[in-house]
Amino acid sequence: MYYHRQLEKKLLETAEEYACITLYGARQTGKSTMIRKVFKDFEYVTLDDSRERMLALEDPELFLNVHGTPLIIDEIQKAASLMEAIKIRIDEEKLKNINENKSIRVMYILTGSNTHEIRENASETLAGRTAIIEVNSFSQCEKLQLDGNEFVPDIEILKTRQKDFKPKNIKEIFNDIFIGGMPEYYVSKLNRNTFFESYISTYIEKDVSRLINVGRLDDFRRFMKIVALRTSQQLDYTEIGNVLGIDSRTVKNWLSILEASGIIMILQPYASSLAKRVIKTPKMYFMDTGLCAYLCGWTDSNILEASPMGGAFFETYVVSEIVKSIRNNGKRIEYSLFYYRDRNQKEIDIVYVKDQTIYPIEIKKGIKKDKADKNFKVLEQYKMPIATGLIIDTSDRLFPLNRDVYYCPVGMIGL
Asked: Are 136 and 262 in contact (CB under 8 A)?
């Protein structure tokens, strides 16, 4: 069974505007399945095939001649030099179309699982020729097969979308958190231990082994588990290094591998020239809560909910859902999503910035939320408009805490 993805609309629009589309993201997020479903008439080739990979590396021109266009090339990072030949083909086609007064349509779709490597090569070699789109695991809207929208914390917009909201109780929410959103695992109802252990092994053997000393792969596996236990926390490189017996430089390098692979995302603190007392340490979140729960050793959603990590997992879930809703609309988060914390320990979970307006957001799993907005006023230092704040929780409807803050059910993210 195929579950439609929110990115499909963006892909079809982009195919009318660009000669090339580059998709990247973590393994098992459904990149190849989605592309082959949306562009079913395109020839498909994967560079996992050793014969295809060798031809692409040794004779890129012949490789492109053999396959023609339109063409989907999977695992493009395994023959990144192929991008130079693709660039030449695109430029030739563009010139031909200009002479014939025709618009260009997509010729190549490239996919891969090494985020940093693909983005760097595509940005440098195919600048102005390719659209770059990130793919994440299923959002909750995709699990429910809803069309979905970009999450914008504007209370008036949220009010109009509330009619499509169907509340879930906290047990159901934590079941969603525990399962996560890996498409193959979710759709096919695979054995949990077998799927995630295979996922981790494949990721380490195929992606990580190319980047670090093979003798340290077991250390990297332990590192993934230690990092999972710190999801939604500020990064303390020294503390993580001390636990593993490695230096902070290695910790930073390995975290960059996880981020480049789409396993985690880094949330930067909000700052400006006025914010002299803001802590500059970023926070880290896993992008799939199912993988994170497996790495942490949780075997049951009810135990996870009641555990000391319940709040951290709920926050991770909320942040990842917001990020997915933004990326599923073909946008990036770097200029809109932050957190706030200063040396007086005043913290705001999310600072969402849009059109020079600040939207403060707190994330609360527990029931004591009446003072959740107590730190919102610290944002007045930025001399920017502050919109109605949100407390994202497990409630069953939008409801005002006061005139400036509303409770918002987690299930409304992305509607």
From this structure: yes
Cα of 306 vs its chain's centroid, Å: 27
Q: What's the length of the chain? A: 415
Give 336's pLDDT tier (boundaries 50, 70, 90): very high
- Look up residue 27 and give its amino acid: R
How many domains does one find in the chain? 2
Could you tell me if 148 and 415 are in contact, meaning their C-beta atoms sit under 8 angstroms apart? Answer: yes
ω into residue 70 within 30 of 0, thus cis?
yes
Q: Over the stretch 178-231, which tens digit does the pLDDT of each residue have?
A: 999 999 999 999 999 999 999 999 999 888 988 898 789 999 999 999 999 999
- HSE (CB half, 13 Å, CA atoms) of 64? 18
The SS3 of residue 142 is helix
Q: What values do phi and psi take at 349, rounded to 5?
A: -60, -45
> Are residues 390 and 361 in contact, defined by beta-carbon separation less than 8 angstroms?
yes
- N-term to C-term CA, the chain: 23
Last residue of a domain, one of 134, 159, 193: 134
Q: Which alpha helices (H) appear in 70-169, and where do they start and end?
A: 82-99, 115-125, 140-143, 155-161
Give the phi and the psi of residue 158 in degrees, each rounded to 5.
Answer: -65, -35
* pLDDT recorded at residue 277: 52
CA-based R_g, the chain, Å:
22
Helix crossing, 31-38 with 7-15: angle to 10°?
50
Q: Which of 76, 105, 134 is the last residue of a domain?
A: 134
Q: Which of 361, 364, 127, 380 is nearest to 267 (CA)?
A: 361
Positive or negative, the CA dihedral 363, 369, 374, 377 is positive
CA distance 338 to 352: 6
In a domain, 1, yes or no: no
Is residue 316 predicted with pLDDT exceeding 60? Answer: yes
Say yes or no: 115 and 192 in one domain. Answer: no
Q: Can you give the residue range of the structural domain that contains 42?
A: 7-134
User: Could you give the CA distance from residue 243 to residue 119 in angstroms, rounded to a whole number?
Assistant: 32
Q: 156 and 45 share a domain?
A: no
Q: Is residue 2 part of a domain?
A: no
Name the percent of the chain in helix, strand, coil, to the closest 5.
Answer: 45, 15, 35
